[in-house]
Structure formats: C-alpha cells, structure tokens
Amino acid sequence: MEVQKKQIVESYVNAYNNFDIDGMTKNLDENIVFENVSDGKVDLRTEGLKSFREQAESAKQYFKQRKQTIESWEFRDSIAMINIDYKAILAIDLPNGLNSGDTLELKGKSEFEFEDGKIKRITDKS
Q1: C-alpha closest to that of 8 among 33, 23, 27, 34
Q2: CA distances, 9 to each of 24, 61, 89 (Å)
Q3: Which residues share a beta bridge with 118?
C-alpha cells in the first residue's frame, strides 16, 4: 500500500511542477479538502474537486516556474507525509514585497490522506 501511495504522491508532485492540473487532480477524491497552513494558520482552504481545480488554475499565473523536490517520506496509517524543498520564480509582484522574477525558496511539509486509493485531503505546511 505504501508503494501505491508513494507513486500517487510522486505523480501529483510531478504534475504540480509541470503546471499539469489534469495530472494533479486525476487521483483526487471528488470531495478533496485542500489546506495551506502558513505560520500555523490556515490561509487557504478549498473543498471539492471543482474548487481545488479552480484554485490550482489561478495559482499557475503566480509562477514562471516552480519545483517541489521531495526530501523525505513518512507513512502513518492512511497518510503519506513528505518533506519538500520548494523553489519558484515569480511571474507577478506579491504584496509581501517579492517581485516578478524573484526566486521564492522554502522548506515545507505536505500531508496526503488517502481513502479508497484516492487522495481525500492535502495539507501543505510552511
């Protein structure tokens, strides 16, 4: 089961890196919940595949390129956790002072919760 989860997560990350929304969503549950947690606070939450897809499409415009590199794995029951190294080049100016062309680098953690072979929850933490 861990091998299957690992393949699904790797497929998701590769699709993310390539701005491939269809690839990102192919293994997601219809009722997928996505949360982005920054500094311990949820700053983005979507519920349902349609909402996730809309968010993923709009996020594409922020980056010229982006790459999540998986640094380590942990499996617990129905959850696969990855530690990631994230690097992106911005396509737009952000309110926090970063500008188009700037490189954004951070370390984060993503948790993927599975049910019936599909991802039902993704939590990104940075």
Answers
A1: 27
A2: 9, 23, 23
A3: 115
* Contact between residue 107 and residue 86 where contact means Cβ atoms under 8 Å apart: yes
- Residue 58, Cα to own-chain centre: how many angstroms? 14
Of the pLDDT bands very low, low, confident and very high (cuts 50, 70, 90), residue 20 is very high
The C-alpha angle with vertex 72 and arms to 66 and 77, in degrees rounded to 5, equals: 115
CATH number at residue 12: 3.10.450.50
% pLDDT > 90, the chain: 94
Neighbours of 77 (CB within 10 A): 6
CA atoms within 13 A of residue 76's CA, in its CB half-sphere: 5
For residue 125, the cross-strand partners are: 37, 109
Q: How many domains does the chain have?
A: 1
Owning domain of residue 110: 2-125
